[in-house]
Design goal:
2 copies of one chain form a homodimer. Chain A is α+β, with helices and mostly antiparallel strands. Chain A is built from 7 helices and 11 strands. In chain A, a hairpin with a 5-residue loop joins strand 4 and strand 5. In chain A, the strands form 3 sheets. Chain A has a 4-stranded antiparallel beta sheet with strand order 1-8-3-6. Chain A has a 4-stranded antiparallel beta sheet with strand order 2-7-4-5. In chain A, strands 9-11-10 form a 3-stranded antiparallel beta sheet. The first copy, chain A, has 2 domains: about 150 residues, Jelly Rolls (Sandwich), CATH 2.60.120; about 80 residues, Orthogonal Bundle (Arc Repressor Mutant, subunit A), CATH 1.10.10.10. In chain A, about 35% of the residues lie in helices and about 20% in strands. Chains A and B meet through strand 5, helix 2 and helix 3 of A and strand 5, helix 2 and helix 3 of B.
Chain lengths: ~250, ~250
Amino acid sequence: MSMATTTSNTSKDATAVNSCNHCNLKKICFPSGLSTDELSTFEGSVEKTLKIAKKEKLYSRGDPLTSVYAIKAGSIKTYLSTSKGQAQVLGFHLPGDLLGFDGFADDHHTSDAIAMEDTLLCELPMTNFENLCEVLPGLRKVMMQQVGSEISRHHSLVLTLGQMQTEERLATYLLRLSCYYNSRGYSCSQFNLPMPRHDLANFLGMAPETLSRMFAKLEKLNVISINRREVTIDNMDALMDLSHELCMKD
Amino acid sequence: MSMATTTSNTSKDATAVNSCNHCNLKKICFPSGLSTDELSTFEGSVEKTLKIAKKEKLYSRGDPLTSVYAIKAGSIKTYLSTSKGQAQVLGFHLPGDLLGFDGFADDHHTSDAIAMEDTLLCELPMTNFENLCEVLPGLRKVMMQQVGSEISRHHSLVLTLGQMQTEERLATYLLRLSCYYNSRGYSCSQFNLPMPRHDLANFLGMAPETLSRMFAKLEKLNVISINRREVTIDNMDALMDLSHELCMKD
DNA sequence: CGAGATGTTGATGGGCCTCAATAGTCGTGG
DNA sequence: CCACGACTATTGAGGCCCATCAACATCTCG
């Protein structure tokens, strides 16, 4: 819908040659652990960039696992639903993140993934993936790392939901986001929340009203400033004091 | 301490020949996806059974990842700690479960694992593991499945902690345990809780007192009976009504 | 401009935590 | 075998954190 800044690709462009090598996310995406030789083998197996519109679903619970995805631009929300219709946001996925591991257990996705904005993805079909794993030791390594990161992130979320108070949860998440942006070369003290209040509140296991109050509280404490979705961390030390998660890299 | 039904192995026996093929857990452990040929290759790389005593740690946060483990008998609790000293139990691991994936991200464990009782484990050193992944397609497949299961389990736990009330959380966990025992060939309507109240309450994100009250409430509703750690499910349908998790296999 | 989505703020009530006391169970040793 | 202390579990009373309901403000976009 928006202007096509990139090279020619209409909505149904056929397997264009992907260039992981020129991608600015190569350091954190699949290529991160691949040698030059491996990378050229790998590139050929990545399907052309996939584009999905805001609010469009990437996959749903129960769908067969066909591919794993890397986010090139935009953002994806994954969530789980109960039989009563409530949902729990499992994570917000930003450029450089990999998606789809939840389907590894039985070749079917166990969660839903939806675009929070117009999003560009690289798609790696599972058939290619399995073949590549056979011949590329580096890819196996990267996969293990990515999967390990995902497990660690979930551990941390469980700790947050199970033990922390609302203020602490928010502080912890802001720090995490700060680290994320820092690792991607952006400012760690000023950034935009990629999601609406409603989704963030859900993710953090609280009511939107409570989240709003906690933002107000942190502002009053001169720890952060927030305007709409723009967050400024004014006192990083204080924010770290409010969070009690054990420090972690990434 | 119990009689050694297996071949000779005292406490420091060197790499005894493991027999996955004769293990009664072969259907759910590593061997589940291996062909006969693959299995014989695999067996040779599994270190001899490891025995750890109750309350002994298998690994701690920060330890280098040396091996992945399969539980042969006993039970292991994994948990995470905050900087304030509170802990969050991440999971209870029973015979047939695999352990240690949390270290894949950067070759160091990000959680702690401790034995809840005297426990027997099979150990697969990472060096062997990586080599085996190269030559055994079946092992890669099994690993992906196991890792996918772990991710799905955590998703489900996040949903439980983030959205459910205490009664619902307990009902959901009892059902899950029931399924586990059923899949292992035990009764799904009568079983023992493998952990003390304190740990289960922590895992479910509630105070031990609240857990106790919820047990009492479920008994009053004639849904379950509980005596110490022995649980009997008297009305499975009612229990499923109380839980609102979307049904899942495993 | 108007309708819907999004976000903030206030009032109220309830679910669950905390504190505390009691009871039951287990391990250890006299 | 029983006694003792430590651990585990249950039950009650009180209060707080946070969900809920509601009103209002602000932004987005056709």
